[in-house]
Amino acid sequence: MKRTILACLIISGALLSLGCSINKNKKEMTDQDNNPIFPKGDKLSNDWFTGNAFLTPLLAKDKNNEFAMGSVTFEEGARTNWHTHPKGQVLIVTEGEGFYQEKGKPAVNIKKGDVVNIPENVKHWHGASAKNKLVHIAITNYEGDTNVVWLEPVSDQDYKDVNK
Fold first, then answer.
1. In whole angstroms, what is the distance from residue 161 CA to residue 164 CA?
2. How would DSSP label each residue in 2-68?
3. Model's pTM, two decimal places?
4. Level-2 CATH architecture, domain 42-162
5. What is the mean pLDDT of residues 142-161?
6. From CA 85, how far away is CA 115, in angstroms rounded?
7. Using 50, 70 and 90 to split pLDDT, how confident is the model at 5?
8. Where is the signal peptide (predicted)?
9. Cα–Cα distance between 118 and 105 in angstroms, integer?
10. Lowest mean pLDDT among 8-17, 77-86, 111-120
11. All structural domains of the chain with their residue ranges
């Protein structure tokens, strides 16, 4: 009987220890998932963005690269104005959920892991959903010294309709 009780205590201790180890690893994975790949960056101008959006520049145009690359963080409800790119843009969503919409087409839900290839001179906007932040890497090509043409803001009603 004493051996059975002792064996049960040893097994219980081992299971408890294993459980703590699993919980610790689960916590580490959760903490890792909550840490962004890049810092939030500097606030972007509300001349071109509605809400709070931030940029961390990653790579500037130079003699080897005809594009710029940056990590853009959109807080809940933040979005770009309508705009175009003379040589296109690629978005790689690294966190959160939001929308991408081309003028005259329905908005598309985008989330972590999605890649959006935006053709040249297509009027569009992108940003976070009303309830989630969105982080994406933007790779924007240049034509001469121009990589973006900013247009009018996305109306609050149009944004509200997308978030239904």
1. 6
2. HHHHHHHHHHHHHHHHHHHHHHHHHHHHHHHHHS-SS---EEPPTTTEES-EEEEEEE---SS-SEE
3. 0.79
4. Sandwich (2.60)
5. 97
6. 17
7. very low
8. 1-19
9. 13
10. 8-17
11. 1-35, 42-162
